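Dear U.,

Please find below the material for section 3 of the report. The protein was modelled together with NAP; I have listed the sequence and SMILES used, followed by the predicted complex structure.
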Amino acid sequence: MTTPPRTALITGASAGIGAAFAHHLAASGYQLLLVARREDRLRELATQLTERHGVRCEVFAADLTDPAAPTAVLDHARNVGLDIDILINNAGLSGNTAFADTPWEVLAGEIQLMVTAQTQLIHLVIPGMKERRWGRIINVSSAAAFAPPAASLLYTGIKSYVLNTSQSLDMELKPHGIHVTALCPGFTRTEFHDVMGTRDRANDLPRILWQQPDAVVTEGWAAVMKGNPVCVPGTFNKISAAAMKPMPVRLGYLVGKTLNPFKNS
Ligand SMILES: NC(=O)c1ccc[n+]([C@@H]2O[C@H](COP(=O)([O-])OP(=O)(O)OC[C@H]3O[C@@H](n4cnc5c(N)ncnc54)[C@H](OP(=O)(O)O)[C@@H]3O)[C@@H](O)[C@H]2O)c1
């Protein structure tokens, strides 16, 4: 009897970095469970990947700001007979309004999506991974986690949480055959800035700052397979993350304050 291929659960697979992960893993022969809100996009991608690579590709439409969603995703995986060996915790976005002017429901949704749902999905997949003594988890953080604190709502704090908890989890789980990597991209050409409403400003940034999503994914996947707990993809991002790290806390605050987009509001 042949062993079935390993299965990857990818959140935020309907666009950008998540869709690039789906292409990369399908091309390597992994089965997929794709999650996001836009079901039509997920179905189109699933059909394309199955035709191109002959892999099984399931979809599950879910809004991960709904506290019931993580359990529903894993229930669906069980119902269709998939064990999750790989978790790509990628779904995310950034708000673009000052904290005090943003309705609480919006802020709570960001925390639910990028902190609570991400953390709960890890908690739900770990027992199976431990039992099979193999697992790979990528949590998509951001180069923002290394940058001086910005007055840009919760994003820097959320991505710092993802960076820190990923390393703690890697320490705890590696003895069980489970690697955890925080993937910290810089500016990546996806729909992120369209959703954030900053496309025009983003287009003015120098080309050297930008990476394509498949380059981010290739480096992130290599890092988790090697067992590296943190991956900052791209030369420019590596240099700027390394340069920010030794900055004293007070200086970091001042730099962040100078760059503060809401200082006049
Ligand atoms: N692009 C960058 O410059 C950049 C830099 C650093 C870090 N990142 C991080 O990279 C990750 C992926 O972003 P991206 O750049 O690929 O952006 P993107 O192209 O806008 O893709 C975001 C994905 O997240 C999904 N998503 C958003 N809200 C969701 C919700 N409530 N429930 C379920 N899925 C949801 C979207 O799907 P639906 O809309 O269909 O639900 C989409 O598939 C994010 O965590 C982001 O913070 C991006």
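For the text of the report, you could mention the following: The longest helix spans residues 104-132.

Regards,
Y.
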